[in-house]
Specification:
77 residues, four-stranded antiparallel β-sheet, alpha+beta, 2 helices
Length: 77
């Protein structure tokens, strides 16, 4: 689930499908366009703060796609 809030973009990811280590790695890769935090509760929760407001509408989806792509690449190696 992706929620756009005043503070930033909140993303909740299912632990059964997403690897928290890959999520953390993706957050490091996105450091040029946003800052963020990862919480590991019932679901993996990511809070992104875009450096440019123009990215607010697409950043959450792009981040999730990037995480999935990185996870897929790691299974191929």
């Amino acid at each position: 689930m992706i929620d756009i809030e005043n503070k930033g973009i909140r993303i909740r990811l299912n632990k059964q499908f997403y690897d928290i280590n890959v999520v953390r790695e993706s957050l490091k890769d996105f450091k040029r366009v946003c800052s963020g935090k990862v919480a590991n509760k019932k679901a993996i929760e990511v809070m992104l703060k875009p450096k440019e407001q123009s990215l607010k509408g697409v950043l959450g989806h792009e981040f999730c796609n990037y995480v999935l792509g990185l996870m897929k690449n790691k299974t191929l190696i």
